[in-house]
């Protein structure tokens, strides 16, 4: 376990997550707020195995973890933590059926606490402007707007930052 919140456990991904991981990473509605395009089952299986192998890489600065519900171990989505010399970035995405249930706000608070334990000074998050719910989550957790820009997919996006 990486960390937990009241209702959630954040843990390493495992090969048994493939079906739910594929459902997440091939959902057009989930990905419209993220970079990348829906992938095939085989592509997601390869990506999942690569992410799992990165856990054992000493100089890895990019981690993706599973978000699971405590009550039934249901896979809900993923969180990302990117360690960088300039900006340490957090991110999360949920399966569509778990939107608007408060899980995003809950995992954001957990990520902030976890980043403080890692002695990070500042974390950032990027949000496509159409994703109003995620913008509100960051703003409700005292993230401040750093700048806005057009991303590689041609979408308006905002960079938020929080000093810890």
Question: Could you describe the 3D structure shown?
Answer:
Residues 8-164 form the N-acetyltransferase domain. GO terms for molecular function: acyltransferase activity, transferring groups other than amino-acyl groups. InterPro entries: Acyl_CoA_acyltransferase, GNAT_dom, N-acetyltransferase. This is GNAT family N-acetyltransferase. This protein is of the alpha+beta class and 164 residues long. The chain has one domain (3-120): Aminopeptidase, CATH 3.40.630. The chain contains 5 helices and 8 strands. The protein has an 8-stranded mixed sheet with strand order 1-2-3-4-5-6-8-7, with helices on both faces. Strand 3 and strand 4 form a beta hairpin. Helix 1 packs across helix 3. The radius of gyration is 15 Å and the shape is globular. The two termini are 23 Å apart.
Write the layout of secondary structure elements.
Elements (H helix, E strand, L loop, with lengths): L2 E2 L3 E5 L5 H8 L2 H4 L9 H14 L7 E8 L5 E8 L5 E7 L8 H15 L4 E7 L3 H9 L3 E7 L5 E8 L1
Parallel strand pairs: 5-6
Antiparallel strand pairs: 1-2, 2-3, 3-4, 4-5, 6-8, 7-8
Helix pairs in contact: 1-3
GO molecular function: acyltransferase activity, transferring groups other than amino-acyl groups
Pfam families: Acetyltransf_3
Protein name: GNAT family N-acetyltransferase
In short:
Helices cover 30% and strands 32% of the residues. It has 164 residues and is α+β, with helices and mostly antiparallel strands.
How many angstroms does the end-to-end distance come to? 23 Å
CATH architecture: 3-Layer(aba) Sandwich
- The share of residues in extended strands comes to 25-35%
- What gross morphology would you assign? globular
Count the beta strands. Answer: 8
Q: Tell me the CATH topology.
A: Aminopeptidase
